[in-house]
Amino acid sequence: MKILSAEFVTSAVKADQYPALRLPEIGFAGRSNVGKSSLINVLVNRKRLVKTSSTPGRTQLVNFFDINEAVTFVDLPGYGYAKAPKRVVREWGPMVERYLMERRSLKGAMLLIDIRRSPRDEEFNLIEWFRAHGIPFRVVLTKADKFSNNKRQSNVARIAKELGVKSSELITFSALSRSGRDEVWEAISALIGSPTPTATKE
Ligand SMILES: Nc1nc2c(ncn2[C@@H]2O[C@H](COP(=O)(O)OP(=O)(O)OP(=O)(O)O)[C@@H](O)[C@H]2O)c(=O)[nH]1
Ligand SMILES: [Mg+2]
Predict the structure, then answer these.
(1) For residue 176, how far is its CA from the centre of ligand 1 (angstroms)?
(2) What is the pLDDT of residues 34-73, one digit of tens each?
(3) How far apart (Å, rounded) are the C-alpha atoms in residues 98 and 15?
(4) Strand (E) or helix (H) holding 94
(5) Counting atoms of ligand 1 from 1, which one is nearest the CA of 54?
(6) What is the pTM of this model?
(7) Distance 63 CA to ligand 2 centre (A)
(8) Which of helix, strand or coil describes residue 85?
(9) Which sequence spans correspond to the domains of the chain?
């Protein structure tokens, strides 16, 4: 994938702060610290387009990034971080829900789950929302580098069973090794219904 441009557009809390509808959008959702911002950086070959942090709760706004003038990535605030300021905890639900429900340019979502964990209520609720509102989504298992090959596969099988899907439907990704990057891009291309932004391979 040749990345020609990747630019921060804006941060928003409320719908009236979203940028004008222009490009197809892909939302990145998941628990705080799961690796949403890191995934976006790897997808666009940039170390720090999106701020990442070992402190959960880094991303507290809905952040928009235009990639190759072809697709907009939307880094959503992570949920499930108990120590986040109360305002953030209170506002997370409506902020993310509002974006996912009302954004007409949203073509699909990536739901990230740490490969070492099990999906919990928040993940099941999000999946229910996606299904109820006809939002196509793919599940990405992050931090795959935390396991050796065998253990990685058994954890993929475990999470697939917990979610009630086939292992082959899950994408396994590592921001450290960049494994899974091409598969995530392919999934995004399928969701936006066009070849990857510039169909050239690196
Ligand atoms: N080992 C490993 N660490 C990762 C990976 N992806 C992210 N991390 C680390 O996990 C921490 C959180 O990553 P972020 O990308 O900031 O996570 P986030 O989901 O954006 O977090 P919030 O913005 O708080 O919701 C950072 O310390 C990252 O370096 C990965 O694939 N492997
Ligand atoms: Mg983040």
Answers:
(1) 10
(2) 999 999 999 999 888 888 777 666 667 899 999 999 999 9
(3) 7
(4) helix 86-102
(5) 27
(6) 0.92
(7) 9
(8) coil
(9) 6-192
